[in-house]
Design a protein that fits this description.
The complex is a heterodimer of chains A (about 230) and B (about 250). Chain A is mainly α. Helices cover about 80% and strands about 0% of the residues of chain A. In chain B, the strands form two sheets. In chain B, strands 5-6-7-3-8-9 form a six-stranded mixed sheet, sandwiched between helices. In chain B, strands 2-1-4 form a three-stranded antiparallel sheet, covered by helices on one side. Helix content of chain B is about 35%, strand content about 25%. The radius of gyration of chain B is 19 Å and the shape is globular. Chain B is α/β, with parallel strands linked by helices and about 250 residues long. The chains are: A mainly alpha (about 230), B alpha/beta (about 250).
Chain lengths: ~230, ~250
């Protein structure tokens, strides 16, 4: 048997027996990414909706910037957070560099433009169709924004799942701000990078399989949500 | 609270880009009557309705209500659109939302929403998703939403344009019932039969100008302007007599 099939067999065995090292890394990955997406969504969704509905000076500029930030390179985000959090940096006193908190911050910032820009788009489309009715009812800007978020709730689930997928599969930013410290800040992506370079292919491959399964499951979930909504709500 | 009506339009014009959609329209709408805005496509009827309802501001001229208090102004009028605008929730929840926006206390909402559904015959579908209802049911739901806040004025923009005759009759019955409750009706329609059935007075527009305004029976019997006559004869005023084959 060649190296690949050996490694594959060993990695499947690791996943099968829930190897503690593997489980620990997967668990930290899920914790960090869930925290970051929750944090990010909490701000990005209302902000996206507000930008879609409210009219204020500088609104167009915000839309342009949000859309441009969709292509934000993860490594650059990592570097920026690193500089902010490093001992000499403006937020150095927090002392969270090379902790999971720093990784949460990095991923939250990384997915923020994705969540905000897509939410804005969805809510703006909804507003286009309902603006006159909402005005006629006497709905305020905030009431309109919230109503349209509720209206788009199933699409928002898809958007948040997409953001989670991006967060959990990202490697550059968490590597820089987390430092890939064994047992502390080692997540799936950084572990895969490290183990591959060390030659521990079974662990790398096992983590790769788990990561793949998570991302695939997210996409399946997203399309299931969409389908069931179309069936039920038209 | 002072009465909302009359509504006075004073030399109102609306210009979009370079196109003049409404050209110095002056008009006073009084309480009680059912006013139907009639005219060919592009006459500016829908724009006029939106100006009255305050959805768009006039380019020049003034729209004045008798009650000038801005906050009660919104609450005292309602509008139903050609395509009903409903939200992705149940029929009942759509009504509850409108009641919440209008500041109705939470404890009253359920009762009032159910009551409004019953009045338009939609009680059986209260819990169905609004966007899954038929076109006629959606429009009845939109009417229920407008009706339950007992507006002084109800604006309707071609509410039956996309509906079959059965649904149209149902909508007309509801509009009549709303009027019987003391609400002023201002209706835009393309349907001459509907205009005859519902109108007390006709406001006839073409080319963005107010051409004629008269009591309905007289308008249909003997219109006084050439435009109105042409519209009534063919409903196609842009077609010259020479185009029509004998």
């Amino acid at each position: 048997m060649n190296t690949f099939s050996l490694a594959l067999a060993e990695s499947l065995a690791m996943v099968g027996r829930l190897d503690p090292k593997l489980v620990e890394i997967v668990a930290l990955s899920l914790q960090v990414s869930l925290a970051s997406i929750a944090l990010s969504a909490l701000v990005a969704l209302p902000l996206g909706a507000a930008v879609a509905v409210a009219s204020f000076p500088g609104r167009r500029a915000i839309v342009v910037v949000l859309n441009a930030l969709l292509g934000l390179p993860a490594v650059v985000v990592g570097l920026a957070i690193y500089l902010l959090l490093s001992r000499a940096g403006p937020l150095g006193s927090l002392g969270i560099l090379f902790t999971p908190s720093a990784m949460v911050a990095a991923q939250a910032i990384l997915v923020f433009p994705l969540l905000a820009a897509l939410t804005r788009q969805v809510v703006a489309d909804g507003y286009e169709e309902t603006r006159e009715q909402l005005t006629s009812l006497g709905a305020s800007t905030w009431t309109s924004a919230i109503a349209l978020l509720v209206d788009a709730r199933y699409t928002l689930v898809t958007i948040v799942l997409a953001g989670f997928g991006r967060a959990i599969s990202e490697v550059g930013a968490v590597m820089i701000v987390g430092g890939n410290i064994d047992g502390v800040t080692r997540v799936m992506t950084t572990a895969i990078a490290l183990e591959t370079s060390k030659g521990d292919l079974p662990l790398a491959l096992g983590l790769g399989l788990v990561l793949l399964a998570i991302v695939l499951a997210l996409n399946v979930a997203a399309s299931l949500v969409k389908e069931s909504v179309q069936r039920r709500h038209g | 609270m002072p009465p909302l009506l009359p509504l006075v339009l004073d030399e109102v014009s609306f210009v979009a880009g370079r196109r003049t959609i409404l050209d110095r329209v002056s008009l006073t709408l009084t309480a009680g009557t059912r006013t139907v805005l009639l005219g060919p496509n592009g006459a500016g009827k829908s724009v006029l309705l939106r100006l009255m309802h305050g959805l768009i501001p006039p380019t020049t001229g003034a729209v004045r209500w008798n009650d000038e208090n801005a906050s009660s102004l919104r609450r005292r009028q309602a509008m139903v659109f050609q395509r009903p605008v409903l939200f992705r929730r149940s029929a009942l929840a759509n009504l509850r939302f409108a009641l919440a926006v209008a500041g109705v206390p939470r404890v009253e909402r359920e009762y009032r929403a159910r009551n409004a559904l019953a009045r338009v015959g939609l009680s059986p579908i209260a819990d169905q998703p609004a966007l899954r209802l038929s076109g006629g049911e959606q429009q009845r739901l939109a009417l229920a939403r407008a009706w339950m806040l007992a507006p002084d004025v109800l604006f309707l923009d071609e509410p039956t344009a996309n509906l079959d005759p059965g649904s149209t009759a149902e909508i007309e019955r509801i509009v009549q019932a709303i009027h019987d409750g003391g609400t002023k009706i201002v209706l835009v329609t393309h349907n001459l039969g509907q205009a005859k059935r519902l109108a007390d007075e006709i406001v006839f527009l073409s080319g963005g100008r107010l051409r004629e305004r008269s009591e309905a029976a007289r308008f249909f019997r003997q219109p006084t302007t050439a435009e109105a006559l042409a519209y009534l004869e063919g409903e196609l005023p842009w077609r010259m007599p020479s185009d029509v084959s004998p």
